[in-house]
Design brief:
single chain, 411 residues, mainly alpha, 2 domains, 16 helices, globular
């Protein structure tokens, strides 16, 4: 797990938006542009691999984990392989070929998981995960070239394309770095506040509660972003009308589904885990409730990215990182464990505010639609909670104990 944290971190800290550039840029179908992106991708893979080699010994020494001396280099081979993936998948995303992309990604996952399970059957070691990841990377490399139309990628360097990619990608780089910090901020801060038992309980609640968020992020990146990119040249008023119309089709079902998840999510914890983890059952609904504003800003953040305004995402992630880092200690100080969890749940409201400001600046504001959809979400949630209390005499946070909101001591 520790090895993957550093590998993912280095990858994110070197992300300059190569794949989004193919989807968003007007030249995204030109062979010279695609080959330039591919060349930059190869260079980046060697840079990331070199960085991983350089940090291997310091990381292994700092954490007193000698196994990392071979584990990080072994896993980082996938980075080199990934640098040579063709640009076909990004091109398919640009063309909204969702079916082909889903088959591709699902196929890779099935092959990788199968290898991992078979290896683990004979040898229950970390090598099973390494082998599964390696096979997934090799399969993705080969398969990606079968999806190419025309000549395969070759080395090329179009200075104008490089300039456009860096101009667009500089904010994506900053946004990605800050997103990584945001995604780790709660655990980094809570590790100093919660004991190991409570941290583990929180981890269970967060993992299950985060599943809808991951679906929404994937939806924004793979569907909303490519579709709006093809319409980016439309007059803002016409583009806004199309966004609002299609947004309703997505958010109304999501509002109903999320309301069901919030009202019944605690039962998932109580069914899957032993009673020692019952505290996670009150955390899950609170964390899931916070997904609603994430849904609103994530889908519209993809729209801003599609029209070339990636700076708002970076500023939003910075605001959220500060909000979570400062909010958790304050919440814990006044309301104990409950306050800390609430701080995580509302932590990305600053991102919503920044994205809303960006939409207003770009004449794409959907603020009134957000109010209407939020009213729908809260209305459905209220009905479900009333029915649950009326017929079952329970609520999702019934396992919340007085000790859980007792003010905590930071030091």
């Amino acid at each position: 797990g520790l090895a993957y944290v550093f590998i993912v971190g280095v990858h994110l800290f070197s992300d300059i938006g190569l794949r989004p550039s193919i989807i968003q840029n007007k030249r995204g179908e030109e062979p010279e542009f695609l080959n330039t992106v591919w060349t930059m991708q190869v260079i980046r893979s060697f840079f990331v691999w070199l960085c991983l080699m350089l940090i291997t010994w310091p990381v292994a020494t700092f954490y007193k984990q000698p196994g990392l001396l071979w584990l990080i280099p072994a896993i980082s081979i996938n980075t080199l392989i990934g640098g040579f993936y063709s640009t076909a998948i990004s091109s398919l995303n640009r063309k909204m070929a969702v079916k082909q992309v889903v088959i591709f990604e699902l196929g890779i996952q099935i092959i990788s998981t199968t290898v991992m399970i078979v290896w683990a059957w004979f040898d229950r070691s970390i090598w099973a995960i390494v082998a599964g990841g390696f096979m997934g990377s090799v399969t993705e490399l080969i398969w990606s070239y079968f999806l190419m139309r025309g000549k395969p990628n070759r080395f090329a360097w179009d200075r104008e394309a490089v300039k456009e990619i860096f101009s667009y990608g500089k904010w994506i780089f900053l946004s990605t770095v800050l997103f990584f910090l945001c995604s780790q901020a709660d655990r980094l801060v809570l590790a100093k506040i919660f004991d190991l038992r409570m941290l583990g309980i929180y981890g269970i609640a967060f993992t299950l509660g985060d599943m809808p968020r991951q679906v929404i992020i994937a939806l924004g990146g793979r569907v909303i972003f490519p579709s709006i990119s093809t319409l980016a040249d439309l007059p803002r008023e016409e583009l806004r009308a199309k966004i609002i119309k299609n947004r309703n089709l997505i958010l109304i079902p999501l509002a109903i589904g999320l309301a069901i998840f919030v009202s019944c999510g605690d039962q998932l914890i109580l069914t899957l885990y032993r009673k020692e983890y019952a505290a996670a059952s009150w955390m899950l609904p609170i964390l899931a409730l916070g997904i609603w504003h994430t849904t609103l800003h994530n889908l519209m953040g993809s729209c801003l990215l599609a029209v070339g305004k990636s700076q708002y995402g970076a500023m939003g992630n910075l605001a959220t990182f500060l909000s979570i880092s400062i909010g958790i200690p304050i919440g814990y100080h006044f309301m104990g464990n409950l306050g800390a969890v609430l701080a995580v749940a509302v932590g990305d409201i600053p991102t919503y505010l920044v994205i809303s400001y960006g939409l207003w600046r770009e004449k794409l504001s959907c603020f009134w639609q957000d109010i209407q959809l939020t009213a729908l979400f809260l209305g459905v949630l209220g009905i479900l909670l009333f029915c649950r209390f009326h017929f079952g005499h329970t609520l999702p946070i019934d396992r919340l104990l007085p000790i859980d909101w007792k003010p905590g001591k930071l030091f």
